[in-house]
Amino acid sequence: MVESRLTGQVRVVGVGLLGTSIGLGLRARGVDVILADASPTNLSIAIDYGAGRGSLADDAPRIIVVCVPPDVTAQIIAAELLAYPDALVTDVASVKLAPLEELRASGADISRYIGSHPLAGRERGGPLSGRADLFLGRPWVVADHGGVSYQRAALLDDLILDLGATLVEMSPEQHDSSVALVSHVPQVISSVMARRLSDAPEAAVNLAGQGLRDVTRIAASDPELWVQILGANSGPVVDVLREFRADLDRFIEALEHPSQGSSRRRINEELAGGNTGVARIPGKHGLDRRYSSLVVMVDDKPGELARLFMEIGEANVNLEDLRLEHSPGAQIGLAEISVLPEVVQRLTDELSQRGWRIAG
Q: Tens digit of pLDDT for each residue in 325-351?
């Protein structure tokens, strides 16, 4: 068991995906984790899963992590501040300014509150989706409002580092404008694009490839949760969407007259701008590194994908990323393997020698 930076008890309120994952990650380091949830069923599942234990009358947590929906976050934070007057309280809501302002307005003791937000998640929610490694290498924003002592805030730093995340300091305002661009607006765009498929002909949908899957993957997220998130951060989201609408209008105008030289130049500039933007997205574990890819043809039969993974490992190559594509009725699938540039040729040769067909 790896030694924990944290000492004492940690209380986690809300055992959905994030709360359960926090509990699992801390329990792996031997931390005494106390779980609480409005749903007895979810609480029982999270406890059975090994994310922590139930509450006891003599609990004295040093830090409390509130992991509840955005519309009740401030209310639960205020209640936890009152119930445990010696504890630091944080939350993991994806909006930081709204709960802080609500707490200030209510007169809560914000000298023991500091908001935070781990940029990690999955399309599925609930305690059974929890993972101890969910936060490894992921950014975790600490939104300091200037009213918490360094000594108290250090508890949150220790929790973040224990979970393997990368601590990022921002103001609540900086956080909300940043996540509007990199998280909230992408959710809107993904959902709007996916909605185009609702009444699309079956023949068209059956042609879907990895590009469409990439664009619409997060459209499977919970609508009720996103109504709350978007409502709480509507100002910054609207600002980005208006700029995006202007970008679309320019693109549409150019496509209306595609044969004109100026239109072709504009289309090229917009597409090239996309190349520039995507190059800035950090890679695995937050590293700004570009990977090289090879596409392996995988027979559509049991065990083939597992064999591919095993033989990549036997070649002593680390798999950095993976994309799978399989057309309906096809007898093969395509596995796009991303690895460090310096090993791509060696892996290509090794897999070819083992009988794998490399596409392209």
A: 776 666 888 888 988 889 999 999 999
